[in-house]
Amino acid sequence: MRTDKDRPSTWITYRASLCESCVGSCCSMPVEVKREDLERLGLADPLEQSGKKIAKRLQKEGIVRSYRSATELYLLNQKADGTCIYLGADKRCTVYERRPSTCRGFPVVLGPRVGSCPYERKLNSQVNRPSR
Questions:
Q1: Does a structural domain hold residue 130?
Q2: Helix-strand-coil split of the chain, %, nearest 5
Q3: pLDDT along the chain (132 residues), means of 10
């Protein structure tokens, strides 16, 4: 059976070792972040004004797609192919040490099916990825 990132019922039980042979399917899912995530990424200053002003600036820079003031959540933009703007060509996170809390908790404590992931094995022809 093949997993489908849009159908959590097809996901498999998560094991950290799966990441080494995965194409990063989870990195093509929408990512909502909080202001503290933006600060950790160096995109917002703790002394900066309102969330709306931060969102407007980051939308112009192509980093944030939208902002919901009711929840104070920012939706990160995605590349044209639907992947995260921080996913490198090698299918590794380019901001791993500073990644948002959503990514830190997925899929162990956060996600549509906690404890499961949309693992998809990379083809043998793809380059091996270094461990995190």
A1: no
A2: 30, 15, 55
A3: 86 91 88 96 88 94 96 96 93 93 92 91 57 46
